[in-house]
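Design request, tokens follow.
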């Protein structure tokens, strides 16, 4: 492939306004990884706040990376180890706290899965903790409590004018020691000198032997500009600021319009064509059919590949909590049936002829299985589909062969 690495900002880019990866975007990125593309999540979030997202994308399976703290750390998901980090000198913390106290600002930092702060009730700190699934611990003397080198220090205030004033002062006062910038109107970030996404991405590229021209970078914020400009193809989200869009090669749709998925399909998976019927409409049409009653949901649709999920619950399990084989076959027929309908002509109909499955392992109640259907024969009179069903951890549950007959409408 022309591009070997996809670097994604997270908030405002990969995630929609509900802080979710849509099913179609997840399916598109999975397919891209199956084709050999590697993914890097590049975010200002702490590492702890990115791990669940990385696991949802299966970066541990597909040799992906997490670039956290705006470039302060690189974590190798497959090897489960830290590749690089740069931290704030702890001797600077008393000075930073003094300025925060003088201005009445809250101050906090991250420590594993905990936020340490002088104002634990601050609404912005509470929201930051919830976003990253971290707890909040109040400390009486912030600088004394920070007996380690933090990845970054955050100051918080709703007085934007005061934050801007301190930012401008520190840009001169701390030049050559620390870098400062506002990531939100109420957040002033203090990070080690020369830490940004582009610089750290350069370190990663050198480590894994990928050239910058083999990289696609997608983002929406000012902090993403250097990363986008350093990539072979820089893409701005539709919801990005105008200043970001001016620095990119291409602008996709917004994060609420699956902009990442559309960009990946356009520039990496060009041969994939989605059905003209939106997935949401397909799922709505089947709400009261068998697949709706079993909780089956289509998640990805193209001419030669269809994917769907099904919960293992009271509707689909055996009495002792194990996925029912019959439900698995129904899932496979659902996937293959839609795939054949997409392939057939307007004057043709599809009739199921045969389904046979090999059950390899079990899935248990509470899990959600994923069926991946691939067309292995698309003749004039019949279609043959192979459907593999996996658990949420990627374990193969069943491998099923579905044969559909193509008939002319009378």
């Amino acid at each position: 492939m022309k591009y070997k690495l996809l670097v994604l900002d997270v908030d405002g880019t990969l995630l929609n306004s509900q802080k979710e990866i849509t099913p179609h975007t997840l399916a598109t990125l999975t397919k891209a990884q199956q084709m050999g593309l590697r993914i890097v999540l590049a975010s200002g979030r702490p590492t702890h706040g990115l791990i669940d997202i990385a696991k949802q994308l299966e970066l541990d399976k597909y040799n992906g990376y997490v670039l956290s703290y705006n470039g302060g750390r690189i974590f190798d998901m497959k090897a489960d180890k830290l590749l690089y980090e740069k931290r704030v000198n702890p001797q600077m913390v008393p000075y930073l706290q003094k300025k925060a106290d003088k201005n009445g600002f809250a101050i906090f930092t991250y420590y594993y899965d905990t936020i340490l702060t002088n104002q634990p009730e601050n609404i912005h700190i509470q929201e930051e903790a919830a976003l990253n699934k971290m707890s909040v611990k109040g400390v009486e003397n912030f600088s004394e409590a920070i007996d380690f080198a933090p990845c970054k220090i955050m100051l918080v205030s709703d007085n934007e004018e005061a934050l801007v004033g301190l930012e401008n002062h520190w840009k001169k006062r701390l030049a050559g020691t620390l870098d400062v910038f506002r990531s939100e109107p109420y957040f002033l970030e203090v990070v080690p000198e020369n830490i940004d996404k582009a610089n750290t991405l350069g370190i990663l590229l050198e480590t894994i032997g990928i050239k910058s021209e083999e990289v696609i970078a997608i983002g929406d914020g000012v902090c993403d500009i250097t990363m986008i400009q350093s990539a072979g193809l820089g893409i701005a989200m539709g919801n990005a600021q105008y200043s970001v869009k001016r620095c990119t090669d291409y602008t996709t749709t917004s994060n609420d319009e699956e902009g990442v998925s559309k960009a990946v399909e356009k520039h990496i998976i060009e041969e994939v064509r989605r059905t003209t019927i939106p997935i949401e409409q397909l799922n709505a049409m089947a709400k009261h059919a068998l697949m709706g009653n079993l909780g089956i949901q289509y998640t990805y649709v193209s001419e030669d590949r269809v994917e769907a999920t099904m919960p293992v619950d009271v509707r689909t399990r055996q009495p002792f909590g194990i996925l029912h084989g019959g439900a698995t076959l129904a899932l496979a027929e659902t996937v293959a049936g839609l795939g054949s309908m997409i392939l057939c002509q307007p004057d043709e109909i599809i009739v199921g002829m045969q389904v046979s499955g090999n059950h390899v392992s079990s899935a248990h109640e509470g899990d959600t299985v994923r069926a991946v259907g691939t067309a292995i024969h698309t003749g004039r009179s019949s279609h043959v589909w192979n459907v593999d069903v996996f658990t949420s951890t990627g374990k193969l549950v069943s491998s099923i062969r579905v044969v559909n007959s193509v008939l002319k409408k009378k």
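Comment from the thread starter after seeing the answer: thanks! The first strand starts at residue 5 and ends at 8.
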